[in-house]
Amino acid sequence: NKCMRFFNNGKSLILGGFYDGKIIVYSIENKKNTAELYPFIEEKPILSIEIDKEENYLFLGNSIGNVCVYHREQDISKWELINFKSEHISQISHINCNNELNIWSSATIDGYINIYTLPTCKLTRTLKVSTNKCTYAFLSSSPLPSIIIINDEENNSELLVYTINGNFMFKQQEYIHMTNPFIVKDIYSFEYLAFVGSDSIIIRKLPNLDIQVNIDCLPGIHTFCVSDDNKTLFM
Description:
With 235 residues, the chain is an all-beta fold. The protein has strands at residues 4-7, 12-16, 23-27, 34-37, 46-51, 57-62, 67-72, 79-85, 92-98, 103-108, 112-117, 123-128, 136-140, 146-151, 157-163, 168-174, 179-185, 191-196, 200-205, 211-216, 225-226, 233-234. 0% of the residues lie in helices and 52% in strands. The protein has a 4-stranded antiparallel beta sheet, with no helix packed on it. Strands 5-6-7-8 form a 4-stranded antiparallel beta sheet, with no helix packed on it. A 4-stranded antiparallel beta sheet has the order 9-10-11-12, with no helix packed on it. A hairpin with a 4-residue loop joins strand 6 and strand 7. It is globular and about 45 Å long. 35% of the residues are buried.
């Protein structure tokens, strides 16, 4: 789920990069409208793909800590490389973009999170997680700008919340493997962290991580999503 993105109302798809460093962007409706991107000369595996909510920018991170940023023209097959980042020295574990805050972040497996401005890609701060691990790092804008960090392990995962300036706020231990986490909003634009546990779907309120929803389900749910109107869960 870190290396595939639908966009353009589900009519286009971005995927690939794990074996040969090549990204394919194509239209599901018009197969001729295809782009092939070779963002990294080293051909190292691309481990994280992100596209911003307005679908103007594509972020790609690879196994040796490099990040490329592309800007999309009106034609989905045309992408312009606008920035290359090499500040990290470990593999990229997650990239996240927040259009409300006009920032994006790149996180590494050893717990470094860099935050950049959008669209200038200027590095504004670096956060080092005390546990030296980071599987996911999400940028939350409401009700309080914050950084949500997940250290995901088989039966001992950890949730950490920092302010956008890097000050520690909350910590929550989860004795489960956290699958497919993402941020969801309610009708008032307040944000929540949603993820799959061993036999339940859990939605925690941000930034204090209080449980808002805990839905029991059969074991074996690997992924889920929420409808655009935030009324329906698909598992």
